[in-house]
Inverse folding.
């Protein structure tokens, strides 16, 4: 009876490990995730600040500018991020140094089971 329970637990753990390995997301997916995340962050924080300081009309222009620079943001993210692949999951860490007056961030994200979760984003400004 004990061996059946141990065997069943081994099968369950083995299945979870196999699923985690098969769904460990890659770098291309991370670049898409990070690009979307940084665009949202910039639009929420920077464009809101622009609206408060300079007026609502410029907030719209700020959104357009961030959307237009999306390829540049994706390239910056790609160049400044390091992946540590642990086979069951991956950790992505990077220092995103954007041109002034945009903020500088240290970002740490885990990729597991086909998803990304940013667990650390420190603003250096």
């Amino acid at each position: 009876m004990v061996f059946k329970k141990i065997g069943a637990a081994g099968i369950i753990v083995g299945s979870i490990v196999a699923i985690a390995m098969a769904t460990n997301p890659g770098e291309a997916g991370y670049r898409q995730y990070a690009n979307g995340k940084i665009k949202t962050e910039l639009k929420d924080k920077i464009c809101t600040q622009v609206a408060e300081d300079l007026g609502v009309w410029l907030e719209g222009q700020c959104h357009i500018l961030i959307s237009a620079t999306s390829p540049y943001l994706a390239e910056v993210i790609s160049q400044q991020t390091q992946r540590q692949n642990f086979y069951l999951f991956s950790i992505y860490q990077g220092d995103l140094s954007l041109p002034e007056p945009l903020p500088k961030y240290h970002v740490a994200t885990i990729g597991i089971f086909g998803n990304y979760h940013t667990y650390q984003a420190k603003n250096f400004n």
User: Anything to note?
Assistant: The chain has one domain: 2-123. Strands lie at 81-85, 90-97, 104-112, 115-123. The CA atoms of residues 90 and 111 lie 5 Å apart.
